[in-house]
Predict the structure.
Amino acid sequence: MRQFLTTVCVGLAAASFAMPAFAEWPDKPIKITIPWKAGAGAVDQMTRQLQKTVAEGSIVDQPITIFNVGGPIPIGLRQAKGQDPDGHNFVVMHTAMMTLQAAGKIDFGYKDFEPVARLGQFCQTTSVHKNTGIETLDALLDRAAAEPNTLVHGANLGAINHVYGIMVEDLRDGAKFRFVQTGGDAGTFPEFKGGRVQVAGFSAAGATNFALGADGKPDPDSPVRLLAYAGPERHVNFPNVPTFKELGYDFQFCVDGWYFAPKGTPAEAVAGFAAMVEAALADEGMQAFLAKKSMVGAFQSGGDLLDEMDRQWEAIAPVAARAAKK
Amino acid sequence: MIDGILGTLTWFQMAFILTGVFSGIVVGAIPGLTGSMLIALTLPITFHMSPLHATTLLVAMYVGSIAGGLITATLLRMPGSPAAVMTTLDGYPLAKSGQPGRALGFGITASFIGSLIAWVALATISEPLSELAVRLTPFDYFALVMMAMALIASVAGGDVIKGLIAGFLGMLVTFPGIDPSGGEIRLTFGTDDLIGGFKLLPVLIGVFAVSQIFADALDMKSRQESVAFSGRGMFMSFRDLREQAVNLVRSSLVGTFIGILPGVGASVGSALAYLFARLGSKTPERFGRGSEEGIVASEAANNATVGGALIPLISLGIPGSVTDAILIGALTIHSLQPGPMLFTTNPDIVWNVIGVYFVSTFVMLGLMVALIRLYVRVSTIPKSYLLPVIMVFCVVGVYSLNNTMFDVWTMLVFGVVGFLLERAGFNLGPFVIGYVLAKVAEAKLRQGLMFTDGDITPLFTEPLSLGMLIAALALLVWSLWAERRRQVSQTLRVKRSES
């Protein structure tokens, strides 16, 4: 018993040295707004996992409460922006923050918040229907350039997978897909299976579900042929699929799960939250969760985070504005 | 399959089924609270359960919640869930005419049989059915929705022009918000709140439940109509069953098939079944005035959509309904990926879902019948006590849907709209049908046009969509003609009695 108490005391002392900010922050429950419905999407589930990991690992001594605001993203995002910057209000968001702003659907953006941390990310893939006979990314782009506006690309128009599709066609002069409203991964797959959609930009998780069999190998019965992965390196789920970089294209497209705080939130709380995210990311349960969702843990905070956001904004903003006009 | 069903019959599993079905019925019966809400709220609790128990509880809730909607729809003309809207059209008039037991009994039996027929399809031919469903093009969907649209004229309740106006008003309500195909924001007048448009639950609860609360509140002075409960007619007699057999099977099949189609939903399923029942009826004039056939069609179909919607979920991993989308979320949280591979990777889960759906259907029947006397008492509670409680549930339920006050305001405004429409002699049926169908119709038509690069001819040249469009037109003409003939014969009868 004594040994146990000593361990606990030493542990607590070590923790208090390692994370001095936690002594003052948080002094009440941390509220994270999720600007869409509960259970929808990987970033919602990622935040629920964060809540669980933080509670189980006693990473901070206050609980996290999650507040889902349903309906379109701008509603919840605006609510979160207007919250009291007392250091206990946060919001989780992903790349759609940029596509929405570029398309003029919100009149604010990431610069109107305090960027806090990136937890993880998932990257997109480009797939074709096997009945097209296309086997490589180059063949796809050649076809899209030779017969512009004929290959049907399923997408949620104006949203992330549409912006991604435009960026892919931009890789070859004259290449044009015909974008059709099919929604996200779940909405696009039935159209794909029905043979009406030939090209799709599934997320890594979608590609895993739709193209691979239960044994993790490519499913011969699936209509999906994966051509390229837009991550920094090959995805562990489909190691035979090359990245765009390997194929000679300087192109990467990942959807980041970002945490923000309202402008004016004390730096101490921002740093505290970021340290909490980093600590949670080291947890085994969190790692297992990310792997299950075909996501990659990719912690970032401070200046690095802001630089990365600026880089993405420059790349995405003009394309998203075009996507909105299409 | 038998193993799957037997597997659900452990005490532990039965406890989950009972809890699930019971809570589903209660939540389903309360206007404002829906099954998908219950399932979404239960989801975090299931994180700590085994995947088998989690799916058991959630599927049982789904079954219970759709069936529960008929209770308040019948007794108070307030659909407990959107799927029960069509049930209000006949359930309430029949209950009001002194036969609440019969109205509920018919609804319950139809719910049971609808679920069973959908279960047979789920357990036997789910794979070919889903393969068929993904072959339907957006134009086919559009033509199908047009068939349901033909219903507007036939539920207009005598005045076709007023019915059409109400239908168009309903369609107008779907316009503000993000357009369903291009993602453009339209008619929001610069407010963020309207980006999401007027959502299904607040509008339906407003138009039906809140407007009824307003009407009842104004009518408070009139004496409480107490309906003496008699068990008479509660169970369908053999003769009833024989008379309703075709209707039951047809409505269940319609419901099952509509359930399979993603994004169409239980309300459309029951509307379409109602239309077919009216067309096939010997007494179409009783529809909307307390027709047993109407209740049976609506309830058999909306319950069948549950089983139907589970078909693409299990065989393709595609959600057939909003509730299914949450169920998929629940499965993936337990690292189960719904889809064709689920049969290979986790056959136990697949057979468990199928088995639980089967057992829940019987539990639903048992609980609904056992509680029927209790329900009927609801209509004897003084309105001054009942209405505030229902109003509170409506507000809480609609708010908790998205955690936004805008939805509550939407509900209240549509309560006033519904109230005024009724006072002006408009029927609410066409309004709701126009509202529910217009969004699907627009999304599918425009999606089809994107696929064909703006060419609309395939809509009229492909055999399936053409056939359904002709059927829609025929249904429309037929219902207008039947209505006209009914009016003429009525006038003649009046004249004859005068002379």
About this structure: Residues 4-22 of chain A have pLDDT under 50 and may be disordered. The interface with chain B takes residues 37-40, 45, 48, 52, 67-72, 74-75, 78, 105, 149, 152, 156-159, 178-182, 186-187, 189-191, 193-194, 196, 209-210, 213-214, 219, 221, 292, 324 of chain A (CB under 8 Å).
